[in-house]
């Protein structure tokens, strides 16, 4: 059983052995996060590397109140966001009021692998990928996303709906699912 | 049957929310390397600050010492001058104050006591004698003498202060010269008069010789345990090498000196019966088992193969051994920058000093030779070595002054690397080294 508190305490004191343990404990989870925000494995590795270096240099700031994993995850997401801001200019996108939402039964989507979905996310244009990840998977609100990405809430919503349309189409095309759709208004 | 329906958000959230994948193994090495780099930068910044502090302290000490040595003769010269100037006053029979005082043999004391009479003498016409025979001073004269008192105190203080620096020196025998008549010696008598070894006007050489440089050389033994061939068939042994260099030392106090310089130190390690394995296109000697992590300087990476091996198109898949039971000779060289202090016991021709300090060892050489049955098959380098390793050292120096300036010394010295010389976690090699340094030093003025 890994004593995470002890490892964190030692990491704060700069013990390299504890840093190794901490890395190996969280590397696969954090790499999973980084892969979602990247276009490929190389970019994900860059984010993971930079993120972990930040984790080790800022671990002294972590107050053992909240979840350490959540704190690390936020660092990885912030690292990905910074990389995105450096490499991508934000373009205003056409406002979308509504789109058609497809819904599928559990057994229908049971055969879809995480790797296939990951590939679809990675293929999204960078700004759609960021917003979709932050909203649909991390659970941030449009207001929070707007602040994080320095865009308006409306832009965040539009980016999200475009991401959904692209992903939905890919899921239907790749897995031959029925279009059991309903019209949904963005909120 | 009712089934849960999921939209696109829920689909991705469910499948990717807790998605995990192992990152490539080299990523941790990159992160470690980066963290080490940051530590190194921090350490260098610390060293820089310490070096600046040391230079400031040294400059302060040097300045202070120079001030002392240069001001001392001035004080003494001033003392001589004043004393000689007072001679007529001391001997003057009309002097009402000094005539009752015995003249101090100490010229510095005389400096303090002689000054007031000069004033008194200059105003002697104003002293009147009362009916009872006491001398009285007019009001203005009393004020004049009172106003002088503080000055007298100051002069006494200065004299005492100067005296404290001259306690170990021969007194300047000026007063007897002033009081007694200078005897006239014949040439023979003059020759027979014992001369003081050191005088204040010609300070001793020893006190001036603060800087010295030293060249030293020693065989260097690195600690290791020769482990008999175990399960993995390897054993590790450190071999004797040479070490030497130059140091400069500065005497900050009578028996205490600090030194720094440049020394060359080398490690040579032999490992027998080690297989090499292909790892990501490189050929690495097998990592030592955990219990032997302290025995080995690090894994060796092949850089060039001999023509014979290169022609055989070595390697055959990720898990296949390429070379079996090779003997490795690793040579790792460091340029050592020591900062040490020495306390010298005794000041005779033969003396003993205790020294201790710390060094930064900068990696300057890294070579490895791989051979098979005595024939060289490849060459390479030890992987993951740190660029700078810190070490601590302590020694006992036995010195003998051949001349005033040249000293020969022998110093058994122990050095211990303070952390592993390798960045690789599998290696924990921070050996001790022992040398008997023979050196020759030269003292400057």
Short description:
The complex is a heterodimer of chains A (187) and B (445). By secondary structure, chain A is mainly alpha-helical.
Number of helices of chain B: 8
Spatial ordering of strands, largest sheet of chain A: 1-2
Helix and strand run of chain B: EHHHEEHHHHEEEEEEHEEEEEE
> Helix content range of the residues of chain A, please?
55-70%
What is the tally of beta strands of chain B?
A: 15
Oligomer: heterodimer
CATH topology of the largest domain in chain A: Rna Polymerase Sigma Factor, Chain: A
Query: How many strands, what sense, and barrel or not for the largest sheet of chain A?
Result: 2 strands, antiparallel
H/E series of chain A: HHHHEHHHHHE
Describe the main β-sheet of chain B briefly.
8 strands, antiparallel, barrel
Which features characterize this protein?
heterodimer, A: 187 residues, mainly alpha, Rna Polymerase Sigma Factor, Chain: A, Arc Repressor Mutant, subunit A, 2 domains, two-stranded antiparallel ribbon, 9 helices, 2 strands, B: alpha+beta, two-stranded antiparallel sheet, 15 strands, 31% helix, 36% strand
Description:
The complex is a heterodimer of chains A (187) and B (445). Chain A has 187 residues and is mainly α. Chain A has helices at residues 4-12, 16-36, 41-58, 68-87, 106-109, 114-123, 126-137, 142-149, 153-175; strands spanning 98-105, 181-185. Chain A starts with a helix and ends with a strand. The relative contact order of chain A is 0.12. In chain B, the strands form 2 sheets. In chain B, strands 4-6-7-10-11-13-14-15 form an 8-stranded antiparallel barrel. Chain B has a two-stranded antiparallel ribbon with strand order 2-3. Classes of the chains: A mainly alpha (187), B alpha+beta (445). Chain A binds chain B through residues 14, 16-17, 19-20, 23-24, 27-29, 31-33, 35-36, 44-45, 48-49, 52-53, 56-57, 101-107, 109, 112-114, 117-118, 121, 132, 135-137, 164, 167-168, 171, 180, and chain B through 3-9, 11-13, 15-24, 27-28, 30-32, 34-35, 38-39, 425.
